[in-house]
Amino acid sequence: MDLSAVKFDDNGLVPVVAQDAATGEILMVAWANAEALETTERDGLATWWSRSRRELWTKGKTSGNTLKVRDILIDCDGDTLIYTVEPSGPACHTGKRTCFFRRNENGAWSDIAGL
Amino acid sequence: MDLSAVKFDDNGLVPVVAQDAATGEILMVAWANAEALETTERDGLATWWSRSRRELWTKGKTSGNTLKVRDILIDCDGDTLIYTVEPSGPACHTGKRTCFFRRNENGAWSDIAGL
Question: Quick check: ipTM above 0.90?
Answer without folding.
Answer: yes
